[in-house]
Design goal:
The protein is α/β, with parallel strands linked by helices and 432 residues long. It is 38% helix and 16% strand. The strands form three sheets. A seven-stranded mixed sheet has the order 4-10-9-8-7-5-6, with helices on both faces. A four-stranded mixed sheet has the order 1-2-3-13. 49% of the residues are buried.
Length: 432
């Protein structure tokens, strides 16, 4: 097993006791030893419609036999144009243009480059500063880790991009522990942007990028009114607001996008994961009319944006995305997250009082259970829960530090929810 250097993994620990999956269908994975593993993570936040869905499988199989690849540099094929139209139809009204990428990391770096180029195109090239947020995760490109706020993702890689600063995070266990839905306290933390404006001057700031719901940091929810206030401050100072919806996009919290759920319209949205239900790598950046139109000047034969990827709008990815959108619509999966939200929240809240459970957080069909760390061994308690769930209880969860993160496929039912939380309650008590 040594040849594969695994991503975001303790390689030596994993290879001493591997957890290998060999198949998947619906709500379940199949392990190498033939067990059916209930998927409470949607793969890696991405399989929103479940696994091996026939419509999506058929679309990819047919596409690879018809057109396996076509360039999109000065050439084209019909599928990305069709897909872009489908996507803007479910996006917030003013986000009418889509730039295709191959991952969330590429979507973030693309959005940051568009933001910088936009200001230059309109004569404000002095706006070069980017603002992220503590605890933010925006992928692993140099742009994404620069605006990101997870220390381990940053500290090994040098000075990163210059001119980047960070807002304070919004996680506040003292005031908001065991909130049901959005926490009530903390909207004032948006005022931290005014502090950075005062420090750096608004004329130097190009964009602010935040996750509406921070996923990789352990499901950190925005306080009521926080995102609205960020929007107001950005408008006041001419700063672009980018929502990173790689996790929240495509139904995870009950609407196509968190922007719609929260009623806050950004200037760009970055997506990936649920766009193709995780089956073919693909990302997309949704761009407002105002940003797009600022580039559409000069001679018609001039390339407007010197940026792109060999696989932007790849035929297989487009076919998968179109079939995924059909599946979401036909099965009402965005609405399903709302239908099950209260039942899911009840199950989350019922964990309060278990040994070492210091917080639960939930919205739509996303959730986090935060555990008290063992003295001198941060992350060990949650990791024990993770491995016992997989090896003994046939349940796949995800952990980050001592936070258990849950993001099941949107096709789950109440019986699945009951099993997930019954198992977690048992294992959390067992590992106390």
């Amino acid at each position: 097993m040594d040849a594969f250097w695994m991503p975001f993994s303790a390689n030596r620990q994993f290879k001493a006791e591997p957890r290998l999956l060999t198949g998947a269908s619906g709500m379940f994975y199949r392990s190498v030893d033939g067990r059916e593993i209930l998927d409470a993570t949607g793969g890696l936040w991405c399989c929103n419609a479940g696994h091996a869905r026939p419509r999506i499988v058929d679309a990819v199989q047919q596409q690879i036999a018809t057109l396996d690849f076509a360039p999109t540099f000065q050439m084209g094929h019909p599928l990305p144009f069709t897909l872009a139209e489908r996507l803007v139809a479910i996006a917030p009204d003013h986000l009418n243009h889509v730039f295709f990428t191959n991952s969330g990391s590429e979507s973030v770096d693309t959005a940051l480059k568009i933001a910088l180029a936009y200001h230059r195109a309109r004569g404000e090239g002095h706006r070069t500063r980017l603002i992220g947020r503590e605890k933010g995760y925006h992928g692993v490109g140099f742009g994404g880790i620069s605006v990101g706020g997870l220390p381990n993702n940053r500290k090994f890689f040098g000075s990163l991009l210059p001119g980047v600063d960070h807002l304070r995070h919004t996680l506040d266990l003292e005031r908001n522990a065991f909130s049901r839905g959005l926490p009530q306290h903390g909207a004032e933390l948006a005022e931290d942007l005014e502090r950075l404006v005062l420090l750096h001057d608004a004329s130097t700031i190009a964009a602010v990028i935040v996750e509406p719901v921070a996923g990789s940091a352990g499901v950190v929810l925005p306080p009521v009114g926080y995102l609205q206030r960020l929007r107001e401050i950005c408008d006041k100072h001419g700063i672009l607001l980018i929502f990173d919806e790689v996790i929240t996009g495509f139904g995870r919290i009950g609407k196509a996008f968190a922007a719609e759920r929260f009623g806050v319209m950004p200037d760009m949205i970055t997506t990936a994961k649920g766009l193709t239900n995780g089956c073919v790598p693909m990302g997309a950046v949704f761009v407002s009319d105002g940003i797009h139109d600022a580039f559409m000047r000069g001679p018609d034969n001039m390339i407007e944006l010197f940026h792109g990827y060999t696989y932007s709008g790849h035929p297989l990815a487009c076919a998968a995305a179109l079939a995924t959108l059909d599946t979401y619509a036909e099965e009402g999966l965005f609405e399903r997250a709302i239908e099950l939200e209260s039942y899911w929240a009840d199950a989350m809240q019922a964990l309060q009082g278990l040994p070492n459970v210091i917080d639960t957080r939930n919205l739509g069909l996303i959730g986090a259970i935060e555990l008290a760390s063992r003295p001198g061994a941060p992350g060990a308690r949650a990791y024990d829960v993770f491995t016992r769930c997989f090896h003994r209880e046939d349940l796949l969860i995800r952990v980050t530090g001592d936070v258990i993160a849950l993001s099941p496929p949107l096709i789950l039912d109440r019986e699945h929810i009951d099993r997930i939380f019954r198992t977690l309650a048992h294992v959390i008590a067992e590992t106390a």
